[in-house]
Design a protein that fits this description.
alpha+beta; 15 strands
Length: 611
C-alpha cells in the first residue's frame, strides 16, 4: 500500500478561539493528515471560478482537476483505502466544483475501491492509480434505480473461452447515468451484471470492463449523452453493451463469490441478494462522501454569507447612518441557526466516519444504518442552508462568481446519489420500529419542574423523548394496521416511523455536539460551543412542544419561554459570527476570488464583469 507524501503543515488560525474551534471541527491532532492536502490544493489557481465555459468545457475542467487531485493524493490506492481522507477530499472540493466531487467519488471510491475490495492485490491497478485510464461505475439502469437488485444487464459465462459475454437485453437495461463519454480520456468501468452460468442466474456481480481508448468507444459499447441536469455539468450518459467479451479475470471476486475454472460458484454468503449487497459494499463509503461534499458546500455558503453580511452596508435608523446588514436579527438569526446546524452536522459526520472506519464486522448492519440516516439528514440540511445563504445575499447570490448560486443544485445530486434519501430512511425506519431502543441518560425520567432550558442535558433528554414518542406511535400503527395487507400496514406506520428516524439522527448529532463541547479546552471557545449546541437543541424541540407537554416532559412555563430562550442565545452568539465561520478554515486564496466574501466586494465584483 502506498502512503501519501506529507507537505508543509496546515497553518493554525492565530486567534486562540478560532484555532480551538478549527481543531474540534477538523479531527484534532489528525487534522493535517486528513484535511491538509485538500485544503492546500484549494489555494491553487486551477480551482478558481472560470467564467464563460460551455458545459463540455466545464466537464473537461473537472477531469483536469481530478488529475491534479491525483497528483497531490500521494497514492490513489491508499486514498481509496482511507475513508477519512477520501471523505475529506469531497468535503474540501465539493463547493469549488460539483463535477469534480462527482467524478472523484466515482473514480476513487466506487471504481478503484471496488477493485481493491475484491482481491485487488492480485490485479494490476497501475493504469487507474496513474489515471492513464479514468474509472467509472455502472450499476443503476434506466428502468431500475432504487430497485437496482432487479437489474437486467447480464454477463453470460462462456465455457469455451472461460470468459463472459456482457449484454444489455432491453432498452430499460441501459446503464443510467454514469460518466462514460469520451471527455476525460480513456475510461474503464466496474459494471454490475447478472452472472448467468448455463442459463442459471447466480446473482449480481461486478465486472471490470474497458469502455474506450484514444480512438473512441470500443466495439459493442454504445454511449448516448444525456441532457444537461441541474448543478455543475458531468458527462452523464446511457450505456449499453452488445455481446462484449470479457476475459475470466474481469470478474471481481472475493469470499462472497468465487468462480472456479469449471464454472462452479462458491460463496460464504447464503443468498443472491446478500452477495449483491456485498459486491456493491462501496456504496456505504459513497454515502459518507456525498454527506461530506454537501457538508463542505454548506460550510462554504455560510462563510460567504456571514462575511458578506458584515461588509454590506445599509441605511440605519438615523438620517445618513449606515449599518452592516448583520445588525438586524432578522438576518443574523437565520444564519446563526444555520451555523448551529452545520456544526452539529460536522460533528455527526466525524462520528459516523469514525464508526465506519473502525467498526467490528458484528456491528456492520447498525453502522451502515447510521451512515444512511446521517447521509439523509446532512444532505437535506445542506440544501436548506445553501438556499438560505443564497437568499441572504440577495441578487449578489445569483451570480456564479460569488460562489453560491450552483450549490443548491449540486446538493440535490448528493441527496439522490448512493441511495435516494427517502428510500434509505424508509429502510432504516422499518428496521428501527422494533429493532432499536432509544438511548436514555440517567436523568431522562426526572420531572421537568426545576429543570431549565439552558441545561444541555435536559434538552438532550427532551429530544430523546421525541424519538420515543414517535417510535411508540409507529409500533402501535404497525400492530394495528390492516392484517393481510403488508403495504397497507406499512402505509399506516411509515409517517410515524420516519419522524422517529428524524428525531434519532438529530439526537445522534446532539450527542456528538455535546461530546465535542466537553472536549473544548479554551474557556471562551467552550462557551461558544455550548451556546451553539443549545441553539441547535432548542431549534429541534420547537416543533415538538405540544407532544412534550402532553407527555408531561415539559411544563407550560417551558413552552412559553422557549422562544425567549432561543432569542437570548442568538443575541449572545451574534457578535461571534465571524469567528464561527473563520473556524471553517477556508483558504484566503480561495475566498479572495469570491467577490462578496471580501470587504471591497464592489470593486472585486465589477472586476469580474466581462466588457
Amino acid at each position: 500500500m502506498q502512503s501519501y507524501v506529507r507537505a508543509a503543515p496546515t497553518p493554525v488560525p492565530t486567534d486562540p478561539v478560532t484555532g480551538e474551534l478549527t481543531r474540534l471541527l477538523f479531527d484534532g491532532d489528525d487534522r493535517d493528515r486528513i484535511h491538509g492536502t485538500w485544503r492546500r490544493l484549494l489555494g491553487d489557481q486551477m480551482f478558481t471560478h472560470r467564467p464563460g465555459l460551455t458545459a463540455e468545457q466545464r466537464t473537461a475542467l473537472s477531469y483536469e482537476r481530478l488529475r491534479q487531485v491525483n497528483g497531490a493524493a500521494g497514492g490513489a490506492a491508499a486514498l481509496a483505502y482511507d475513508v477519512r481522507r477520501l471523505a475529506s477530499l469531497h468535503e474540501w472540493t465539493g463547493f469549488t466544483d460539483g463535477g469534480l466531487c462527482t467524478v472523484a467519488s466515482i473514480h476513487y471510491n466506487l471504481f478503484l475501491g471496488s477493485l481493491i475490495d475484491h482481491d485487488g492485490y492480485r490485479r494490476d491497478l497501475a493504469p487507474f492509480v496513474s489515471m492513464e485510464r479514468t474509472g467509472t461505475f455502472l450499476c443503476t439502469e434506466l428502468a431500475h434505480g432504487n430497485d437496482v437488485a432487479a437489474m437486467q444487464t447480464v454477463a453470460v459465462f462462456d465455457r469455451a473461452s472461460g470468459g463472459f459475454f456482457l449484454s444489455t437485453p432491453t432498452p430499460g437495461a441501459r446503464k443510467f447515468m454514469p460518466n462514460t463519454s469520451l471527455v476525460g480520456g480513456p475510461k474503464s468501468a466496474v459494471v454490475a451484471a447478472r452472472l448467468l452460468i448455463d442459463d442459471e442466474d447466480q446473482g449480481i456481480f461486478l465486472f471490470l470492463t474497458p469502455l474506450s481508448d484514444e480512438q473512441g468507444h470500443l466495439p459493442g459499447v454504445t454511449v448516448t449523452p444525456l441532457p444537461e441536469r441541474t448543478g455543475t455539468p458531468v458527462d452523464h450518459s446511457l450505456t449499453a453493451f452488445d455481446g462484449v467479451w470479457l476475459p475470466r479475470e474481469a470478474l471481481l471476486e472475493a469470499d462472497h463469490g468465487r468462480l472456479s475454472a469449471d464454472g462452479t460458484l462458491t460463496s460464504d454468503v447464503g443468498n443472491r441478494r446478500k452477495r449483491f449487497l456485498r459486491s456493491i459494499g462501496r456504496v456505504t463509503a459513497g454515502k459518507l462522501c456525498m454527506s461530506a461534499g454537501t457538508l463542505g458546500m454548506a460550510r462554504a455558503a455560510l462563510t460567504i454569507a456571514v462575511r458578506y453580511s458584515h461588509h454590506r452596508q445599509i441605511s440605519g435608523p438615523k438620517a445618513g447612518e449606515r449599518i452592516p446588514l448583520t445588525a438586524h436579527r432578522s438576518h443574523h438569526g437565520r444564519l446563526l441557526q444555520a451555523l448551529a446546524s452545520v456544526y452539529a452536522m460536522t460533528f455527526l459526520h466525524r462520528e459516523t466516519v469514525d464508526r465506519w472506519a473502525d467498526h467490528d464486522p458484528a456491528e456492520r448492519t447498525e453502522v451502515e444504518r447510521l451512515v444512511a440516516v446521517a447521509k439523509g439528514w446532512i444532505t437535506w440540511e445542506a440544501r436548506e442552508i445553501t438556499i438560505e445563504c443564497r437568499e441572504r445575499c440577495g441578487a449578489q447570490g445569483l451570480f456564479p462568481v460569488n460562489g453560491l448560486s450552483e450549490l443548491p443544485g449540486n446538493v440535490e445530486g448528493g441527496i439522490t446519489a448512493e441511495g435516494d434519501n427517502l428510500v434509505i430512511w424508509v429502510k432504516a425506519a422499518s428496521e428501527m420500529v422494533f429493532g432499536h431502543e432509544v438511548e436514555r441518560t440517567g436523568t431522562a425520567l426526572l420531572p421537568p419542574e426545576g429543570r431549565e432550558l439552558t441545561d444541555l442535558g435536559f434538552l438532550r433528554d427532551l429530544l430523546a423523548a421525541v424519538e420515543e414518542i414517535w417510535q411508540r406511535r409507529a409500533r402501535t400503527a404497525l400492530r394495528q394496521g390492516p392484517s393481510g395487507n403488508p403495504v397497507g400496514r406499512w402505509n399506516e406506520t411509515s409517517g410515524a416511523a420516519l419522524e422517529m428516524v428524524g428525531a434519532h439522527v438529530r439526537l445522534r448529532a446532539a450527542d456528538a455536539f455535546i461530546a465535542a463541547a466537553e472536549r473544548t479546552v479554551d474557556p471562551a471557545a467552550r462557551l461558544l460551543m455550548e451556546d451553539l449546541c443549545r441553539l441547535f437543541l432548542l431549534q429541534q424541540l420547537r416543533a415538538h412542544t405540544g407532544d412534550l407537554l402532553a407527555e408531561e416532559r415539559l411544563t407550560v412555563h417551558h413552552v412559553v419561554s422557549l422562544h425567549r430562550e432561543i432569542e437570548g442565545v442568538i443575541a449572545s452568539l451574534a457578535p461571534h459570527q465571524l469567528a464561527l465561520v473563520d473556524a471553517f478554515d477556508l483558504p484566503e486564496e480561495l475566498l479572495g476570488t469570491v467577490p462578496i466574501a471580501n470587504e471591497d466586494y464592489m470593486e472585486r465584483f465589477l472586476g469580474s464583469v466581462v466588457n
